[in-house]
Amino acid sequence: MGPIEEKVDLESDEEIPFSSSSIRRKVHMFGFETASMSAHADVVNTWVFKRIRMSPLRSIYIVLIKAKINVLLPFGPLAILLHYVTQKHGWVFFLSLLGITPLAERLGYATEQLAFYTGPIVGGLLNATFGNATEMIISIYALKSGMIRVVQQSLLGSILSNMLLVLGCAFFTGGIVHHRKVQVFNKAIALVNSGLLLMAVMGIMFPAVLHFTRSEIHFGKSELSLSRFSSCIMLVAYGSYLFFQLKSQHDLYNPVDEVYSFSSI
């Protein structure tokens, strides 16, 4: 509930008990009091403009200072300083971990705020895309440093956590919070998401099988070619998934009404 409460702080404290759409409906239904309705519309426009023209200093305060987790931000510059003045890599890693934690949380907060204005589908897509930006940056720098094993284990951990940890926690928490309701979900969406995760698992498994069975025709080259081919297939599959989610079957991603409860059965 934190991001929602902070969103309320970002908005003006004034409330308008009517909207411009309701004003237009009233004018269309009743052919009188047009001047009065026009005045109300001007008030609404002024209120909206006031919200848009919110103080940048207050926005910076909410994003960088108000959240309690931001007390960890100074550990990032401290880790950079220790990296150049000392050789204590353990402390550099620990302080970097503390410093990057609020950055990842603030990135997720920013995408959640965008979701309030773009809708749940686009907002969820932004959250899923930019929520992994930290992991992507770390993987890129690890590849530049030649730490391929670290990147492989990071990808495998992400896949397993999404397939088991996140899904299991969602079921478990949902059962506790909504213990008197039957949790429902869309089977088509579940099949698509499970298929993408299964494709990611196979993209990692097949080159590994080729490596350990020593069955490739050209040692090293076949494994690399299969890995690159799998990555291209996964990129095409992800692009198809975006088209499926945003254009083709976007109605499937509307929230499902949970109308069943144990008390009514």
TrEMBL record:
InterPro entries: CaH_exchang, NaCa_Exmemb, NCX_ion-bd_dom_sf. The chain crosses the membrane at residues 60-85, 91-109, 121-143, 155-177, 189-213, 225-244. Pfam families: Na_Ca_ex. It is found in: Endomembrane system. Keywords: Antiport, Ion transport, Membrane, Transmembrane, Transmembrane helix, Transport. The keyword Transmembrane applies. This is Vacuolar cation/proton exchanger, putative. It comes from Ricinus communis. The lineage of its organism: Eukaryota, Viridiplantae, Streptophyta, Embryophyta, Tracheophyta.
